[in-house]
Amino acid sequence: MSETPKPLILTGAKPSGELTLGNYLGAIKNWAIMLEEYECFFPIVDLHAITVGYVPAELRKHTYQCLAQYIACGLDPQKSHIFLQSQVIGHTELSWILSCLTPVGELHRMTQFKDKSSKPGASVNAGLLFYPVLMAADILLYNADRVPVGEDQKQHLELARNIAQRFNHTYSETFKVPEPYIPRAGARIMSLQDPSRKMSKSDENPGEAILLLDSPQAIRKKILSAVTDSDTEVRMAPEKPGIANLLNIFSAITGRSVEDLEREFGDSGYGTFKNALADALIAHLEPFQERYREIIEDKTFLHGVLKEGAEVAQARAFKTLRKVYRKAGFVERA
Ligand code: AQP
User: Which CATH number does the domain 206-293 belong to among 3.40.980.10, 1.10.240.10, 3.30.160.100, 2.60.120.260?
Assistant: First the structure.
């Protein structure tokens, strides 16, 4: 008797910089717990990393780092398909077809586009505008059942769902309409210097983000200089966004509840609280960094992971692409 196939989940990060604690606590840490229940596709979406100015050698370095960090975070390549978006034919091809079904006005309404294009000095290229269509193609190419999304990506997933429905309606039933997957334990990590904004790889001020590869000294320095308020009480409250962010990080790292942390550190003063958080973070990241250092040295292993991942992904991608081309009226290659 053949087994029922597991539902397919797809999610990835773009190698636009070094991975942050936000990428880890908000995303990658939660992906590792899905390996048994789902067939997992974890593309590193490198084509998305070139919509803003970048240095080619840095992109390559960040891509290898991201791959080794995925694995060091517990994404087992034996139990998932890890690959580079740029190594699979189909993402950009499908994206073109989907873009012909997407009104430009919808893309102009995307919050991330508005944010990134309004940054002072931003050069707004067509890729930045079309980014969500490429993301829709990434998802639909594999007929993903579920897509884990953070708050910041909900709008893009909604667009992918609309595009899938539009294709199905225009041609005929082809794509599954992907459902959002809300991880049981997801955390939104904010900038250490401006807790109204999320922590990002591309933050310009190095004090804003903890990088997963930061040294213990750098971690402590960043936590100790994190923005708080003029009060002294360690308490979760809307008027204390800096402390709230640090409490969330502490809780996510240790698995302790915020109430428990408030009980222990409520009156201890910010210095004691921040030092305890720095200790916990350093201890949490140490084994990860050790694993990372071993993995990043082993290029043969890393290339093997990418080759295997790309082979599986390519077979699926070609299958979808053939179907899409046929439905869209293109003549099949003899
Ligand atoms: N601060 C965050 N808190 C929680 N989750 C976060 N994610 C990113 N930042 C946070 C989640 O990480 C996954 C991978 O993200 P991505 O690399 O695809 O792109 P991003 O969301 O644009 O990440 P960055 O770090 O902000 O990159 P830049 O600065 O280049 O734009 C996603 O699931 C995301 O939700």
Answer: 1.10.240.10
